[in-house]
Automatic annotation (TrEMBL), chain A:
Keywords for the protein's UniProt record, in alphabetical order: Cell membrane, Membrane, Transmembrane, Transmembrane helix, Transport
Membrane topology, record value: Multi-pass membrane protein
UniProt KW Membrane keyword: yes
Top-level division of the source organism's lineage: Bacteria
Major localization class: membrane
InterPro entries: ABC_transporter_permease, MetI-like, MetI-like_sf
Protein name, as recorded: Sugar ABC transporter permease
Organism: Phyllobacterium brassicacearum
Domain (ABC transmembrane type-1): residue spans on this chain: 87-299
From TrEMBL, chain B:
Organism in which the protein naturally occurs: Phyllobacterium brassicacearum
Any GO BP annotation: transmembrane transport
Primary localisation category: membrane
Domain of life: Bacteria
Protein name (record): Sugar ABC transporter ATP-binding protein
Topology in membrane: Multi-pass membrane protein
Keywords: ATP-binding, Cell membrane, Membrane, Nucleotide-binding, Transmembrane, Transmembrane helix, Transport
Signal peptide stretch: none
Stated family: Belongs to the binding-protein-dependent transport system permease family.
Domain ABC transmembrane type-1 stretches: 72-265
Recorded GO MF terms: ATP binding
PROSITE patterns in alphabetical order: ABC_TM1
Native organism taxonomy: Bacteria, Pseudomonadati, Pseudomonadota, Alphaproteobacteria, Hyphomicrobiales
Length: 308, 280
């Protein structure tokens, strides 16, 4: 700080360490410092700390941590059967959600990328759940999806279908959570696809049409390859998002029934803040970190290969 | 059939399909408001869209069951604080990253990019102990500090940087010639030119804070400190079962104002999210 005020004094510029270049550097760091200091304290620091936490076991009574090495990781990966059950749930959630979300987003975007009567209405409608809080959305769907007396089931009864108790039935809970989550988030991917579609020059399509290409051929040969970079970004973001899902599950099922929707983010919360297994929860958080990083890298590499 | 007729039929089919697809997007909102007006007995009866008897009392009970007005205000002022802070620090850092050359810039960018990939759940445990050691549990500080300086703040910084990069440099250089300091150039020239980016950051940051759930859940314990999402999830009877009509009335009160603003400014709001390209 002091160095900067010095630069304003006459003659200060002569000092070699206060040449224009250094002055600019100092100014730049001053501009960045609020973000950077906050980043160090509330992000980078905690990120380093969690590696230490993961190798400790906390005693709640004495409030002291004992170093236990890789015990917590051993616990998660080899001993505790819950862990693999939870990973399996997270994978099922992602595998169900990501393709469904992306296919629906692309379909809606293809339908809504050109102006026609009502296009603004539809875009507004499909995007509305994105701006709504996940808790509010989950509350309403939990209400609609109740077993007896639930609105959805009463409507199904009108056409003679005996609906299950969606969120309490182990066979249906995960599917119900995935579908309601897709409806909540699909609008975001839809607008990313719309932006990408609108950036494609119309000449390409016109030329192909004059050559006699069908709608499907135009999509398959021209539009889909041009969308590849967008598809990659959407895939990475949606996959990461699906591993992070917490509030939706918390409110709709609380991880139930029979831990059928207990996903990784919820399990971390449960272990860390309900059961106070701080060390174990930290190990879980690191595993989640590794999974998300690995997924991102794999997807980026796969797509790069495909584009070559 | 002529090509024209085929096109009309094609279009109509699409529109009908879209209308059907729109039902699960609109229906929950409509039902939420309708059920918020129903009595406990009616809510489980044969479902009707229009309540047979409008029970306005629900909307009064919401405020007596919990300090709902206070909780509403908490959410509002925290979101405003987070938005204001994020605007200032992200536009400062974004400007430096776009316009100034300094040692460590490359490394800094790398750090920031990796932050975008790390879920908040990963750092929440150490952050809890950090906040506790500061004595700030059950205050609103963590709900202001963590979102501002976490991955969301980094995303805002990147968004500002992208926008500054695309601005023409000439005006800023003229400003420098006229004797403006770096700070002056940023404040008087760069910021006024980047209103669209600032608006985008403001919109997504406000909604991000407004809808935040994990942090309030972990840090808050007294009812008067609760924010809206936490308050909404708390409308349960002594057995932990939801008090549906109160919960849905409260949810309507939380959601409808946001929806109205969204309907008025939908173009601007959708564009902001497209610009950020991240999950809200």
């Amino acid at each position: 700080m002091a160095a900067v005020t010095h630069t304003n004094e006459p003659g200060a510029n002569r000092a070699p360490w206060l040449t224009l270049k250094y002055r600019e550097m100092l100014e730049a760091w001053l501009f960045i410092s609020p973000t950077f200091i906050g980043f160090l304290v509330f992000f980078l620091g905690p990120l380093v700390a969690i590696f230490y936490y993961s190798m400790t076991e906390w005693n709640l009574l004495s409030q002291q941590a004992a170093f236990v090495g890789l015990h917590n990781f051993n616990d998660a990966l080899l001993v505790n059967p819950d862990f693999w059950h939870v990973v399996r749930n997270s994978v099922i959630f992602a595998v169900g959600l990501v393709p469904f979300n992306m296919a629906l987003a692309l379909t809606l975007a293809l339908a809504l990328s050109r102006p026609f009567f009502g296009v603004v209405f539809f875009r507004t409608v499909f995007f509305a759940p994105v701006v709504t809080s996940a808790i509010a959305w989950a509350i309403v769907w939990k209400f609609l999806l109740q077993g007896e007396g639930g609105v959805i089931n009463q409507m199904l009864a009108l056409v003679g279908i005996d609906g299950p108790n969606w969120l309490r039935d182990p066979n249906w809970a995960m599917a119900a959570v995935i579908v309601t989550r897709v409806i909540k988030m699909v609008g975001l991917n839809m607008i990313l696809y719309i932006a990408a579609l609108q950036a494609i020059p119309r000449d390409y399509e016109e030329a192909a049409r004059l050559e006699g290409a069908s709608r499907w051929q135009i999509f398959r040969m021209i539009i889909w390859p041009l969308l590849a970079p967008t598809t990659l970004i959407i895939m990475v973001l949606t996959t990461i998002g699906s591993f992070k899902v917490f509030d939706h599950i918390y409110q709709m099922t609380g991880g139930g029934p029979e831990n059928g929707t207990l996903v990784l983010a919820f399990y971390i919360y449960q272990q860390g803040f309900k059961f106070f297994n701080v060390g174990y929860a930290s190990a879980l958080a690191i595993i989640m970190f590794v999974i998300v990083m690995a997924l991102t890298l794999v997807q980026v590499m796969l797509r790069r290969k495909e584009m070559e | 059939m002529t090509q024209r007729q085929i096109n009309v039929i094609y279009r109509s089919c699409w529109t009908i399909a879209l209308l059907i697809a729109a039902i699960p997007f609109i229906f929950p909102f409509v039902w939420m408001v309708s059920a918020g007006f129903k009595s406990t007995t009616e809510i489980f009866g044969t479902p009707t869209l229009i309540p047979r008897e409008w029970r306005f009392q629900n909307f009064v009970d919401v405020f007596t069951y919990q300090p709902f007005a206070r909780q509403y205000f908490n959410s509002l002022y925290i979101a405003v604080a987070v938005t204001a802070l994020t605007l200032v620090i992200s536009s400062l850092a974004g400007y430096a990253l776009a316009r100034m050359r300094f040692a460590g810039a490359g490394l800094l960018m790398l750090f920031f990019v990796s932050a975008l990939m790390v879920p908040e759940e990963v750092t929440i445990i150490p952050n809890f102990f950090l906040i506790r050691s500061m004595g700030l549990v059950d205050t609103h500080w963590p709900l202001i500090l963590l979102p501002t300086f976490g991955p969301h703040g980094v995303m805002a910084t990147f968004l500002m940087r992208q926008y500054f990069l695309a601005l023409p440099k000439e005006l800023e250089e003229a400003g420098k010639m006229d004797g403006l300091s770096r700070f002056g150039v940023w404040w008087r020239i760069a910021l006024p030119m980047s209103r669209p980016a600032l608006a985008a950051v403001a919109i997504i940051t406000f909604l991000f804070s407004w809808n935040l759930f994990l942090e309030p859940l972990i840090f808050l314990s007294s009812l008067e400190m609760f924010t809206l999402p936490l308050a909404l999830s708390n409308f349960n009877d002594s057995y932990g079962l939801p008090l549906w009509n109160l919960q849905l009335a409260a949810t309507s009160l939380a959601v409808v104002p946001i929806l109205i603003v969204y309907l008025i400014a939908q173009r601007q709001i959708i564009e902001s999210f497209a610009l950020s390209g991240v999950k809200g």
